[in-house]
């Protein structure tokens, strides 16, 4: 829309005085979308009047800009929905006596922010606590739905008791028969208030990292089982290590430690360094802050191509 006298046109009140001069033409170009217009671009010519070719070019540029803005807004809307759904699938952690838990979930910086990473922790009928971190292969709604089904199945199986290895073996059979073309990794740790040890098992998942009360850190690198859901029979083994009060166990997904062209081992070493950097009382008094303190150096060097899960399990000190 072009007008020699722009008075009364919508959107011109915020134009500079030179654009509102009665003797100066004004070009107003709507920003159309598939639903409602985004607004109007109001332009004044560099000279006394608009060149027809310039006007045609500006109309086309504005049309393309409108399409780009509309797509960006729709993408952001879908991204927000996906992240809200992902967080709704993550549970609130329990607060069992003597055991502190802190979890962090961060979506990938690319894509629609929905994937198959999850963490969970819950009590078993005998007083034990199960902590789990898992990762369904792929991204998108299908991976998120499968993640939710695995989490629900694990809780159901754990009601009957069972060690981490037994629970993972049942999850393996469940996934293979339910979705033969989907796979997952997971690590489960079991704590019991009457037992100064932790029993853990992994299926195709990065190993837990354990910090002892004296500040020493080591990777629990016992041989894991294969990925959940692959077409093979497997009985996933349990591993038990001492875990004295003041110890901290870190469970995580590969998005925290794996970077392109560098593999996973350097990232696990960095995680061990970060976990070992805290003072003697920091993990006891502020586990939530400690989780943030681990993420900052781990994620400061690059954008995230994958989701990130971190679950810290800290046995409170006797003092």
TrEMBL record:
<comment type="function">
    <text>Primarily acts as an independent SigF regulator that is sensitive to the osmosensory signal, mediating the cross talk of PknD with the SigF regulon. Possesses both phosphatase and kinase activities. The kinase domain functions as a classic anti-sigma factor-like kinase to phosphorylate the anti-anti-sigma factor domain at the canonical regulatory site, and the phosphatase domain antagonizes this activity.</text>
</comment>
<keyword id="KW-0378">Hydrolase</keyword>
<keyword id="KW-0464">Manganese</keyword>
<feature type="domain" description="PPM-type phosphatase">
    <location>
        <begin position="99"/>
        <end position="315"/>
    </location>
</feature>
<keyword id="KW-0479">Metal-binding</keyword>
<dbReference type="GO" id="GO:0005524">
    <property type="term" value="F:ATP binding"/>
</dbReference>
<dbReference type="GO" id="GO:0016301">
    <property type="term" value="F:kinase activity"/>
</dbReference>
<keyword id="KW-0067">ATP-binding</keyword>
<keyword id="KW-0808">Transferase</keyword>
<keyword id="KW-0460">Magnesium</keyword>
<dbReference type="Pfam" id="PF07228">
    <property type="entry name" value="SpoIIE"/>
</dbReference>
<dbReference type="InterPro" id="IPR003018">
    <property type="entry name" value="GAF"/>
</dbReference>
<dbReference type="InterPro" id="IPR052016">
    <property type="entry name" value="Bact_Sigma-Reg"/>
</dbReference>
<dbReference type="GO" id="GO:0004722">
    <property type="term" value="F:protein serine/threonine phosphatase activity"/>
</dbReference>
<keyword id="KW-0597">Phosphoprotein</keyword>
<keyword id="KW-0547">Nucleotide-binding</keyword>
<keyword id="KW-0418">Kinase</keyword>
<protein>
    <recommendedName>
        <fullName>protein-serine/threonine phosphatase</fullName>
        <ecNumber>3.1.3.16</ecNumber>
    </recommendedName>
</protein>
<keyword id="KW-0904">Protein phosphatase</keyword>
<dbReference type="InterPro" id="IPR036457">
    <property type="entry name" value="PPM-type-like_dom_sf"/>
</dbReference>
<dbReference type="Pfam" id="PF13492">
    <property type="entry name" value="GAF_3"/>
</dbReference>
<dbReference type="InterPro" id="IPR029016">
    <property type="entry name" value="GAF-like_dom_sf"/>
</dbReference>
<dbReference type="InterPro" id="IPR001932">
    <property type="entry name" value="PPM-type_phosphatase-like_dom"/>
</dbReference>
<feature type="region of interest" description="Disordered">
    <location>
        <begin position="1"/>
        <end position="21"/>
    </location>
</feature>
<dbReference type="GO" id="GO:0046872">
    <property type="term" value="F:metal ion binding"/>
</dbReference>
């Amino acid at each position: 829309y072009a007008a020699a006298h722009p008075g009364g046109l919508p959107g011109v009140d915020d134009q500079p005085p030179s654009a509102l001069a009665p003797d100066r033409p004004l070009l107003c170009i709507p920003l159309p979308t598939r639903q409602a217009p985004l607004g109007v671009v109001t332009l004044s010519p560099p000279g006394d009047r608009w060149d027809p070719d310039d006007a045609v070019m500006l109309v086309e540029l504005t049309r393309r800009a409108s399409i780009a803005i509309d797509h960006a807004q729709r993408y952001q809307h879908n991204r927000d929905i996906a992240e809200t759904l992902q967080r709704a699938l993550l549970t609130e952690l329990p607060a069992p006596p003597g055991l502190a838990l802190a979890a962090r979930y961060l979506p990938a910086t690319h894509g629609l922010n929905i994937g198959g990473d999850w963490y969970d922790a819950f009590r078993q009928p005998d007083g034990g606590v199960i902590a789990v971190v898992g990762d369904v292969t792929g991204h998108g709604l299908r991976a998120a739905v499968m993640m939710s089904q695995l989490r629900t199945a694990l809780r159901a199986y754990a009601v009957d008791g069972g060690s981490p290895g037994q629970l993972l073996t049942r999850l393996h059979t469940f996934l293979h028969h339910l979705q033969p073309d989907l796979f997952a990794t997971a690590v489960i740790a079991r704590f019991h208030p009457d037992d100064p040890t932790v029993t853990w098992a992994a299926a195709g998942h990065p190993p837990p990292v354990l910090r002892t009360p004296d500040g020493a850190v080591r990777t629990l690198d016992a041989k894991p089982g294969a990925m959940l859901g692959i077409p093979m029979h497997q009985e996933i083994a349990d591993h038990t290590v001492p875990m004295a009060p003041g110890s901290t166990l870190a469970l995580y997904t590969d998005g925290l430690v794996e970077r392109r062209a560098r593999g996973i081992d350097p990232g696990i070493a960095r995680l061990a360094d970060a976990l070992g950097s805290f003072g003697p009382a920091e993990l006891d008094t502020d586990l939530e802050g400690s989780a943030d303190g681990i993420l900052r150096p781990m994620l400061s060097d690059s954008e995230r191509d994958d989701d990130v899960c971190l679950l810290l399990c800290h046995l409170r000190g006797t003092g």
